[in-house]
Amino acid sequence: MFNKAINIKDKYIRQEMWPSIFCTGCGIGNVLNYTLRAIDSLQIDIDRTVFCSGIGCSSRLPGYVDADGLHTTHGRAIAFATGVKMSDPELTVIVFTGDGDMAGIGGNHFIHAARRNLDLTVICINNFNYGMTGGQVSPTTPPEAMSATTPYGNLEEPFDLSRLAIGAGAPYVARWTMGFPYETITAIEGALRTEGFGFVEILAPCPTGFGKGNEQRDAVTSWEWYKDNTITRAELAELSPEERKANTKTVIGTLWQTDKPEYGKRWRELVQRLQSEPDLSG
Amino acid sequence: MPVEFDPHRVVQVLGQTETFAQGDVACAYGALLGGCDFFAGYPITPATEVAEAMARLLPRIGGAVLQMEDEIASLSAVIGAAWAGSRAMTATSGPGFSLMQENIGYACMTETPCVIVNVQRSGPSTGQPTEPSQGDMLQARWGTHGDHEIIALAPASVQECVDLTRDAFDLAEKYRNPVLVMTDGEVGHMRERVRLPAADELEIRPRGEPTTSPEEYVPFLAVKGGQIPEMANFGTGYHTYVTGLTHDERGLPATDDATTHSRLVRRLCQKISSDVDTLTRVERDDEDGATVGIVSYGISARSAAGAIRILRGEGERLNHLRLIGVFPFPEKAVQDFAEGLDRIVVPELNLGQICHLVREAVNGTAKIELVPKIGGEILTPDEIIQAVKHGGESV
Amino acid sequence: MKKEIRIVGFGGQGIILAGVILGEAATRAGHWAVQTQSYGPESRGGGARSEVVISSDPIDYPRVRRADVVVALSQEGYEKYGREPGIPTVVVDSDLVEAETVQSLPFTKTAEEVGHKIVSNIVMVGYLGALLDVVPHELLEETVLANIPEGTEELNARALAAGRVLYENHAG
Fold first, then answer.
1. Mean pLDDT of chain C
2. Of A46, A200, B198, C145, which sees the most CB atoms within 10 A?
3. pLDDT above 70 for A264
């Protein structure tokens, strides 16, 4: 279990970048906290850890960590991270991304990385909108929700990011909300420990962007919404088959965990094999 | 850790030192000779052969090759790998090059060394996939948004595909900038004799660690009064924050500060533009008393050389300036070349791109005439001869 | 010495390989050589053109300016490239092209006799090698063998030799 006594801010935060840009009630700072605690608990060497991100509020996280950080172009963090990891496989590579960054513009890179199963940890903070640019609709905005670009209500259906990750081949997928800090930390530890594409989706409030137009004006109302609209796997298991079938709440918990060959390892095995071939010339 | 450069292994993997090879494959040879240990790419005619050659060769020296899901991801992975310590490259053609523009700007802004091969094909858009052109030259300079500089080399032979791709890596490391190798479908697919160096002719200056300790290191502050900061690989304890946002010397975002932005962007540009003399790479072939000259680059230089040989055989006097480095544009070399000339003919496989830069540099001292050609066939010597004798298109 | 050779036909006839072999063999013989090609993106069936320039000196313009030899393996190719006035030598495959006043040679038929019509391009290379006379036959054979799939060496060597014989029987 993680060390509660440790002062995360002193140990891991890039002091010159503090305080953060996050709004009151935002959940992104919490995610940073959980991630750093998970890293600390697993005693991962921060000198050998690289944080990658795209563009958006969630993507600002690497800037707050006193570690190597790669704040890239919108949607592309996972592709950049792929290069980092393939070049130096011994680095721990963590991606911070958001629903818009990862599943909008970044969708293609997300599904291919899950399929490829390179050892990356992707933490996607899902606040149901493009927050940094003022609260536009995103690929996870609930149906009929208000947003800056759906002022009459969202007519589209959202992605279930975790299901997408599972469908794309990720061997470890977990989803939690702000209401479950310890579980979230454990989930991130699980993803970090996974030798492969570890994916953690965290539903987080965005009172300024999403919340304002959708009656979730502060963290409290967001957390209540999560309570009413999500259900843990354990709770789901306690329902009757009919109730389970009729469930429309978002399922949270460790949603998928399996073993499959990790890409980087397979690549290195190939390289090894080629070195022992008598005729290298090509 | 990224692969350490082993010249003996590279030479062993490349095989024969004298071979008959295609330009695209020659770029791959050049990459290995230049210390490349990471390649990410996406299939596109007529550059696919570069990726295929890299896929065969790179794992044999212990490097990594990825076919990514698109060109954007390819250059993204290249930049990521560069920060982890690799000498990294991608290869593409027009449509893919267009997709890569955002990340090219990112590499400029973050001072990431990387090499991009563009085997130019006939455009715009899907165009003629199997036909060559020189239609991306100005895009090479200005394809990405904002003020920036680019280093671009133009091979005119299969041997130059080897040599210039190899040089591109050292240039990328030195200037901490993307370096473009602008070939074309003709050079890329033609086969010629190439000579590859022996192991004892190969040397790479490894990136190494910064000369300052992590505590003292300021990531984007040039050391010793120069313009180019030392680069600290990820994972070596330097905790560098790399962002495409305007940043100060510490690498931290400073988007509200006009002075910081100006200082940063000017330095990014000046580190290359102020070194234009060192970066100038041209080949000049003069004849006493000539009043007409040809300024050429890339595959068109081959056509021009043929025209000049034939014209000189007929007793005509002509000077020839071949641009090997096209960007930063060698203004002084072109101005110098124009002295004493009445006319300068510029053959290009496009509707006029570099000719405008020639005209700007020459600034009225000679008349600039374009010999444009599009549609896929390279310029014939006769087409250039025609222009020399009867005038090309006014620029 | 400078020889400009143009081979035209369809994609899938191996004419590009033929050009590559000629160019590579010339390089092995110590000459300068450039091999180029033009074709559509389709793998089979589109028009294809392969050119080789062989020279004692470095080659500037890499394509054929004034062909010394044009070999046409398709009617379309012949119509397009074989009928320009002033080409010293024009050769067509007698099974594939109808043409007058040019050398008409049974590359395809000879290939079938040797074992498989797929090596008709190698028969043609053997013929051209003898015609051009800038590369010793052994070097040409070495180059052919370095460029064909494992297991087909004997067939290709026979095709090459048969091509040379074609030249010897039709020379003049």
1. 93
2. A200
3. yes
Nearest to B283 by CA among B328, B327, B334, B317: B334
Enumerate the residues of chain B whose CB falls inside 8 A of the CB of residue C41: 45, 129-130
CA distance C144 to chain B (A): 13
Q: Are strands B343-348 and B367-372 parallel, antiparallel or unpaired?
A: parallel
Q: B189 vs chain C: nearest CA distance in angstroms?
A: 7
List the beta bridge partners of residue A68. A50
Contact of B381 with chain C, judged by CB distance below 8 Å, is answered with yes
Q: Which residues of B touch C24 (CB under 8 A)?
A: 20, 191
Q: C165 vs chain B: nearest CA distance in angstroms? A: 27
**C2-170, superfamily in CATH?**
Pyruvate-ferredoxin oxidoreductase, PFOR, domain III (3.40.920.10)
Show the domains of chain B with their CATH numbers: 7-201 (3.40.50.970), 223-274 (no CATH), 283-394 (3.40.50.920)
The token pair at A189 is: 């530890």
Over the stretch B36-76, which tens digit does the pLDDT of each residue have?
Answer: 999 999 999 999 999 999 999 999 999 999 999 999 999 99
What b/e string do you get for C11-41 counting C-beta neighbours within 10 Å, with b at 16 or more?
Answer: bebbbbbbbbbbbbbbbbeebbbbbbbbbee
Q: Which architecture does CATH list for A8-275?
A: 3-Layer(aba) Sandwich (3.40)
Whether B37 and chain A come into contact, CB under 8 Å, resolves to yes
Is the complex ipTM more than 0.90?
Answer: yes
Enumerate the domain spans of chain C: 2-170
8-state DSSP, A60: G
